[in-house]
Design brief:
- By secondary structure, this protein is α/β, with parallel strands linked by helices.
- The chain has two domains: 305 residues, ABC transporter transmembrane region fold (Up-down Bundle); 236 residues, 3-Layer(aba) Sandwich (Rossmann fold), CATH 3.40.50.300.
- The chain is built from 19 helices and twelve strands.
- α2 runs antiparallel to α3.
- The radius of gyration is 35 Å and the shape is elongated.
- It starts with a helix and ends with a helix.
Length: 588
């Protein structure tokens, strides 16, 4: 346990240093914030002295030094005005510092998220990643604001107040200094126990966010299969764990304030009692004692503020650690230094003894050999999970092979730049994806400069123009959930996107799985025209969509078990024939 605490402390220190590094290019603003904090503290602490002078101007009934009193009141007014102006400037500068630093960090995290390999994104909950970039960044902002606005002011207030009190009366100030460690050690002891609970709180919050995102995305399946109770139980279990961690974190952190208030009350009482004896002995004036009591109150407040800041900072450090963990994840392996640009792809593809597995020791593909001529249409069929989509991911270089090589136009895909390689392909997947933008912007994603007529022509070719024109604003309708589009309509828009881009090579992975049979026949004709002269890979479970392929590959047991045309594979009487007969055999 001691080792774990030590490791957490080291990690926390490293995170704090990295947070401080966010302000390395903002030295001027940091110095300005420091000077303004000093001005606020000095202006605030001048008030008890000036108030004490005003009290001393009232000697007794009929014995008032009005000129001195008015002078003290004028100084008090000037100090209040200057302090308020400095406080406003401090707030403005620190807000700019905190929000600017976290904005930069959040942008770094989001940019890095787009550079991470697909394997990382596939193995982490999308809701948890969103929670890091949104919620954790907001928590960090809150902590930084408190650190800039309250922490330095609080520390300076304690130090400067002690100095002022020693100037007024060293004996009374010594009593304050002797009692101060009670507040410090109490706050430190409690804060140390709350740190690990704040770390657990942020972790469980991310898990809960990811689970909610997952269940909301699949709510139709949840309700269809009547598993609401199981979903509710798991949510309640995770939520209860989060509640327990949050309770412990808040409980320990909330102990700091009352305990420090109790210690500060002791200090205040000691000053009042001891100061009264000193005043009666003539060691301090009544105004001086009044100023001392004012300083005692000023001296006590920062301990409460600092304890609250310490609590918030622990939460912020835990959130920052999750952000830095995301940023520290290794990015996708960069292109080779001598990587070439695939400017004019011919469409020649070769798989040379390709092997791949998502986990070590569990290969999905073992030894795949395939040579594809330019313009050839290849169909990949096989049972679910046999590796068809995995093969596509390797061709697109979303993953790198574990063994062998994937060649495009005679060169290993790793020797082409990813941008030019992926730009040469057009993909239509089973899962349709559209972003929050207009229909025109979604269809024109691959060609942002396309005219509206070109976008409409692509949609007509994909048989999507009719339903788009029935939308409230037609091609200017924003797809954000308010426009009710079916899965089939979304898939047609994705097909139109590829038809507009006119890529050199095509990948169709169950591209018409969500489309009705009649529309599918029409779209298949359009896709057939699009595939003419282009190297194409078609992944399909329905064999009716691949009968016209130049070469059909049946994948099984990590290899291409059979290959040939539709007629050749039927005549061979192997796996393909059994799959075909299972789909088209008459019902007995």
């Amino acid at each position: 346990m001691r080792g774990l605490r030590g490791k957490a402390a080291v990690s926390g220190d490293a995170t704090v240093r990295r947070i401080a590094g966010l302000f390395s290019g903002r030295t001027g603003s940091v110095l300005a914030a420091g000077l303004l904090a000093v001005a606020v503290v000095v202006g605030t602490l001048l008030l008890p002295v000036l108030s004490g002078r005003a009290v001393d101007c009232v000697v007794g009934p009929g014995q008032v030094d009005f000129s001195g009193l008015f002078r003290a009141l004028a100084l008090i007014a000037c100090a209040l005005g200057a302090t308020a102006a400095c406080q406003w400037a401090l707030t403005a500068v620190t807000n700019r510092l905190a929000f600017g630093a976290v904005l930069s960090l959040r942008c770094r995290a989001f940019d890095h998220l787009q550079e991470l390999p697909l394997s990382y994104l596939d193995s982490h909950g999308h809701g948890d990643l969103a929670s890091r970039i949104v919620t954790d960044a907001d928590q960090l902002t809150n902590g930084l604001l408190m650190a800039f606005q309250q922490l330095p002011v609080g520390i300076l207030t304690i130090v400067v107040t002690l100095v002022f009190m020693f100037v007024l009366n060293p004996a009374i100030a010594a009593v304050v200094a002797l009692l101060t460690p009670i507040s410090i050690f109490t706050a430190r002891f409690i804060a140390a126990h709350s740190a690990r609970h704040f770390s657990g709180q942020t972790r469980l919050r991310g898990e809960l966010t990811a689970y909610v995102e997952e269940m909301v995305g699949g709510i139709s399946a949840v309700e269809t299969f009547q598993v609401q109770e199981a979903v509710r139980e798991r949510f309640a279990r995770t939520d209860a764990e989060l509640g327990q961690e949050s309770f412990k974190a808040v409980f320990f952190s909330s102990l700091v304030n009352p305990t420090t208030r109790f210690a500060n009350a002791l200090v205040y009482a000691a000053i009042g009692i001891f100061g009264a004896f000193v005043a009666m002995a003539g060691g301090i004036t009544v105004g001086g004692l009044s100023a001392f009591l004012g300083y005692a109150d000023q001296y006590a407040k920062p301990f409460n503020d600092i304890s609250g800041v310490a609590t918030e900072l622990q939460n912020s450090v835990a959130c920052a650690r999750r952000l830095f963990e995301l940023i520290d994840e290794p990015a996708e392996e960069p292109d080779a230094a001598d990587a070439a640009v695939l400017a004019e792809p011919r469409g020649e593809v070769r798989l040379d003894h390709v092997a791949f597995g998502y986990e070590p020791g569990r290969p999905v593909l073992r030894d795949v050999d395939l040579a594809v001529r330019p313009g050839q249409r290849i169909a990949l069929v096989g049972e679910t999970g046999c590796g068809k989509t995995t093969l596509i991911n390797l061709i697109m270089r979303f993953y790198d092979v574990s063994g062998g090589a994937v060649m495009v136009d005679g060169r290993d895909v790793r020797s082409w730049t990813r941008e030019s390689l992926r730009g040469a392909w057009g993909m239509v997947l089973q899962d349709s994806w559209v972003r929050r933008a207009t229909v025109r912007e979604n269809v024109g994603m691959g060609r942002p400069d396309a005219t509206l007529e070109e976008v409409r022509a692509a949609c007509r070719e994909a048989y999507a123009d009719d339903f788009v024109m029935r939308l409230p604003q037609g091609y200017d309708t924003v797809l954000d959930g308010s426009a009710s589009l079916s899965a089939g309509q979304l898939q047609l828009l994705c097909i139109a996107r590829v038809m507009l881009a006119r890529p050199s090579m095509l990948i169709l992975d169950e591209a018409t799985s969500n489309i009705d049979t009649r529309t599918e026949l029409l779209v298949q004709r359009a896709l057939a025209r699009l595939m003419e002269g282009r190297t194409s890979f078609v992944v399909a479970h329905r064999l009716s969509t691949v009968r016209d392929a130049d070469l059909i590959c049946v994948i099984a047991d990590g290899v291409i078990a059979e290959r040939g045309t539709h007629e050749e594979l039927l005549a061979a009487g192997g796996r393909y024939r059994r799959i075909y007969e299972a789909q088209f055999a008459p019902t007995e």
